Amino acid sequence: MANPTYKPPINAQIPGPIYEQDSFSRDFKSGMTQAWNASVEQQINGVTAVRVAYVGSQSYHQSYVMDRNAQTYSYCTYYNNPNCQCHRKQTSSMAP
Questions:
Q1: Residue 53's beta-bridge partner residues?
Q2: Is the pLDDT of residue 82 over 80?
């Protein structure tokens, strides 16, 4: 639980804004789901009845989130195969 009497130090830094980089295509359409059902019931005699029912649904324009930074596993690594073309041994810890 948070301490209601906590006061941050005067020189505490406030984190910068967080940007979420989402984009939509120009022809983006909101997703839609339609659902329907129908049933017919008929009594045949005093103790027997028949019911027929149908239930259906349809969805379209459903959006999905694609992680463009997804991690994948590869059996081919520099450590078990120095000739592996998919991953090279990292020579520096600095980004290019």
A1: 39
A2: no
